[in-house]
Task: structure prediction
Amino acid sequence: MKSTKSNHRAVYLVDGARTPFLKARGKRGPFTPVDLAVQCGRPLLARQPIAPDAYDMVILGCVNVIADEMNPARVAALRLGMGERMVAFTVQINCGSGMQSIDTAWRYIREGGADLILAGGTDALSHAPLVLGEEAVGWLSGMQRASGPVATARAAVNIRPGDLKPVVGLERGLTDPITDLGMGQTAEILAHRFGIDRSMADAYALDSHKRLARAQEDGTLVEEVMPAFDRDGNVYEKDDGVRADGTIESLAKLKPAFERPYGKVTPGNASQITDGASWTILASEEAVERHGLTPLARIIDSEWAALDPAVMGLGPVMSATPMLMRNAMSCDAVDLWELNEAFAAQVLACLAAWRDEDFCRKALGLDSAFGAVAREKLNVDGGAISLGHPVGTSGNRIVLHLANALRRRGGKRGVATECIGGGQGGAMLLEVA
Result:
C-alpha cells in the first residue's frame, strides 16, 4: 500500500482517549467490547467543541466481536449519541485492527471524502467465546433432527463426555491456521534466528513494567486514560497488569509457555490477555480551522506489509522500513518509536534484524544495516508486556500514545508499528503539528 503525496490533503490527529487496560483473570471482565468503546468515547466526545452528530463517520477495529454486538462500530456510535444517520463500520486485520481504523480514516480525509472521523479499536478478550468441537456439533445436530422419544434416546447415547469439553475460542484465534503455530511459537523462531536468549527477554519485560509504573506514578497518562465505571459502581482508573515490584529473579522462575524446557517465551515476557478500548479523532485542515481544534500530530504516511506467518513478528521491520525509506528518513531521524510488544523476544528480534546487514540486504533490499533503534526512544512508557494487548485496540493505542509522547518530549517525528498475526505488519509515521 504505497502512498503518493500529490493532491493529498493534510490529515491531523487532534485528540484521543482510551480506557485502562484490564487484565483477564480467568473470568469475564465487567465490560463488553462496545461497553469499553463507550466508556472512553463519552468523555472524549464531551471535551470537543463539536456536536457528536457532526462527525462524518465512525470506524472501529475489533477482533473478538461478540454475538450481541454485531458491527460494534455502529452499536458504539448509537450509544455515544452520534445519531441514527451516522455511518459506522468495523474493520479487522488481527493485531492491526486499531491502526487500520486510523489508516482508513486517514485515506478518506486526505482524498477529500470526509473531514472529521472518529477512529478507534476495542476488544474484550475475557469475553472470548467457548467453542465446541466438531463431534459435539454433530451430536447436537443429530439431537435436533431426531423425531420422537426413541430416536432422541438413540441420538443421545452417541456422545462421549470428552466431546462436550469446550475450547476457548481465543486459544484457536492465537494459533495460525496456515502454519498451525501459536503466536508464541513464532516468537521462539525469531529468538532462535537472532540469538535472543531468555535473560535478554526477561530484562526487556522487566523494563516495560518499570516504565509503565513510572508513567502511572508521574501522571503521564492522565489525559490519555479515562476512568471506566461498571454497572456496580466500581471504578477502574489504571492499567492493572503492571508489576511494579517485579524482579529478574521472579521472571526467571517462570517456565516457558510454548517450547519446554528451553523456550524463551514465558507468561512474564509476553503480552497480557486484556480488555480495553481506544479512540482517536482525525480531522482535515479545514475541520481544524472550522472547529478551532489543536492537533496533536499530523499523519504523514502509512504502510502495510505481509510475510511468512511463521515469522510474523518481523512485521514492524517489513512495514516501517520501506515507509521510512520512501520519506527519506534514516533510523536516527526517528525521535520516538512505539513498537507493540507482542513478545519481548519478538521486539528484540526486530531490533536485531534492523542491525543485521545481511538481513537488511536480502529481506529489505538495503545496501547496509538500517540501524540501531536506541532503547531510550522505544516504548518510553512501557508496552503490551506491562499494559496488555487487547488485539483490536493496540494499534490505535500506540498511535495515540506516540502523538502524546512526541509532544511531551519535544520530538518531531515518530513511528508506530506492530506485527500482525497471520504474517503481516503495519506502520504509521507521525509528525508533531
